Amino acid sequence: MTRLGEAHEAESGERPFGPTAVKVIVVELVVLAALLAFQLRFGL
Amino acid sequence: MHAIDWFIIVVYLVWIVWDGVRLTKNSHEIEGYFLASRSLPWWAIGLSVMATQLSAITMIGTTGQAYDDGMRFLQFYYALPVAMIVLSVTLVPFFHRARVYTAYEYLERRFDARTRALTSFLFLVSRGMSCGVIISAPAVVLSIVIGWNLTLTCLAIGLPTAVYTMFGGVQAVAWTDVKQMVLIVAGLVTAVVALVLGLPDGVGLGEALGVAGATGRLQAFDLSFDLTEQYTVWSGTIAAFFLFLAYFGTDQSQVQRYLTAKSIGEARTSLMMSAYWKIPLQALVLMVGVLLFLFYLFTPPPMLFNPVHEQRVRSGPRAAEYGALETRFAEAHRARRAAAERLVAAGRGADAAAVAAAREAFRAREAEVRATRGEAAALVRQTTGDRAFTDVNYVFPSFVMRELPVGLVGLIIAAIFAAAMSSISAELAALSTATVIDFYRRFVRREASDAHYLRVSKLATGFWGLFAVVVAVYAAQLGSLIEVVNRFGSFFYGSILGVFLLAIGVRRATAAGAFWGLIAGMTAVAAVARFTAVAFLWHNVVGVAAVLAVGTAISALARRPGPTA
After folding, report:
1. Strand positions, DSSP E, B246-337
2. Domain at B11, CATH number
3. Which of B179, B415, B447, B451 lies 20 to 30 Å from B14, alpha-carbon distance?
4. What is the domain count for chain B?
């Protein structure tokens, strides 16, 4: 499926999606870490 | 309710209908009506998608859930960003390239008309019914808390939405959603500020949150692996992942949104808005519930938040019993408040043992309050015969009506209306699209002018709007129907996703494999729901697995060469 997306990017000239995907994952990890810190600070 | 609050709500309703209807001028052909001529910017689509998901049920039900149970529900969304990435790489470019109007249209190209018609039909039935529930659930609560007529409340939510969606099409849906989203967030932020300001002098927000934490209400990570438990990290990351793939990837109400984008890049970016903001936004909604708990820790709450049911018990034969419970509840609340203040005071010192003791004492008082509320709810169930009675959905609207000043009441009730309407409008547009494209244009009239299809599309939108209002009025009277509709929807989400995965991921899959795989998937989910206690989020995984297994097997059998003569 990833190949499908990459092939399309190549043929259509769309911006590569990889960097955006990495950024989304990093932001989610930061948000989850903040929630965990919040739980540890106030929730126990 | 004060005249100023009424004025705010009426102004909102008139303005939103006017704003939607004026977009009629941009919807003169069917592609403009259903897909906004594939011209919308990513931020409008992204906000519209988020507004659709943030329904009035979220504002009323999720805040009540957090009041009662805390932030555990947040775990449900942990897989959403990853699901958005997967969809951006797979289905988004796929649908864009296919130049389809509906997700199901693609299934005919890949398999056959039968598979397309069945999946589209399942969408129409489930979404048509759930549209009614989206109207009826908040209408029931608002009509009781504010004292409005139930049928009129259903009409006040459903009809304006049907009017602007019918005339303005998907452009009206998207642009009104953007404005409604602003109003919803403003309402939520206002509630948070009012609740924080409502804490007693001398108790800081951090100290109050520490008290909420002592009850487990700030637990956003539950690592226990229990298939019967609805919200854990595992159900939120594994089972919900499939639900989000199914919802955003195969549900027409969502697919239609990113089909309105100018390009694949814009469609992807619109989904990324949800990927970035959905978890923080949901945390804000849940935090309103936690702050409601803190507010009523220091301010005496009603024992039950549903005044109509309460009144029925008071005027019934067990009124004395209820009165005794109220006395006990008031004492339990005072004791809990004192215990909370002792916990706050202990937290300011450095004595860890004193803090632990104060926390244990507070938990014991909290358990007493919960037990008394539980007994009162049981009494209501016995007296009224409403076996599903729960008052959590009434906590937030009750707070708004009792505690907020004039003006803010109107603002937040308008925000609840906006949340309901933004969800319904997208559903109506999607229902109309599936009706016209997958059935009318496919099976009834294959060749007709654009003007003809446009007329039929508007009629279809109006029909679904009326259908939703009628379902809402009946669903409101038969409370248990709401649960039936919600469960019904979860029966085939995973199965429909399975068919799309077969279509895209299994090159040798055949039409027969897809059709019978879909039937097998729904049967498997029905069996799991009927005979096991497995939580409904996992039904999506069961559906996907069954469709892929049966669909692949039937496809392989169908392709096997027969004996030669």
Report:
1. none
2. 1.20.1730.10
3. B451
4. 3
CA distance between the termini of chain A: 42
* Domain annotation covers residue B106: yes
Residue A38: give the domain boundaries: 17-44
Calpha distance B383→B322 (Å, rounded): 11
> Does B543 fall in a domain?
yes
**Cβ-contact B47, B270 below 8 angstroms:** no
Name the packing angle between helices B395-403 and B113-146 (round to 10°).
40
Establish if B303 belongs to a structural domain: no
Helices B264-298 and B205-214, packing angle to 10 deg? 90
Q: How many CA atoms lie within 13 A of B360 on its CB side?
A: 5
Based on the domain organization, do B350 and B292 belong to the same domain?
A: no
Q: Please tell me the pTM assigned to this model.
A: 0.88
pLDDT tens digits along B407-460: 999 999 999 999 999 999 999 999 999 999 999 999 999 989 999 999 999 999
Whether B359 and B404 share a structural domain: no
- Number of domains, chain A: 1
Q: Would you say B475 and B431 are in contact if contact means Cβ atoms under 8 Å apart?
A: no
Is A4 among the domain residues?
no
A43, B263: Cβ pair inside 8 Å? Answer: no
Q: Are B498 and B543 in contact (CB under 8 A)?
A: yes
Tens-place pLDDT, residues B528-555:
988 988 887 788 889 999 999 999 999 9
Residue A3 lies in a domain: no
Closest by Cβ to A17, choosing from B89, B212, B276: B89
Across-strand partners of B261? B40
All residues of chain A having their beta carbon less than 8 Å from the beta carbon of residue B94 are: 4
Give every CB contact of residue B530 below 8 A, 6+ residues apart in sequence.
none
Rounded to whole angstroms, the Cα distance separating B394 from B115 reads 42
Q: Which domain holds residue B377?
A: 313-387
Q: Is residue B449 part of a domain?
A: no
Partner B, chain A 1-44, Cβ-Cβ below 8 Å: 1-2, 4-5, 8-9, 12, 14-15, 17, 20-21, 24-25, 27-28, 31-32, 35-36, 38-39, 42-44
Cα(B172)–Cα(B457) distance, rounded to whole angstroms?
14
Return all residues near B496 (Cβ < 8 A) that are at least 6 apart.
Answer: B119, B122, B123, B246, B250, B518, B543
Residues of A in contact with B221 (CB under 8 A): 35-36, 39
When pLDDT is cut at 50, 70 and 90, the band that residue B527 belongs to is very high
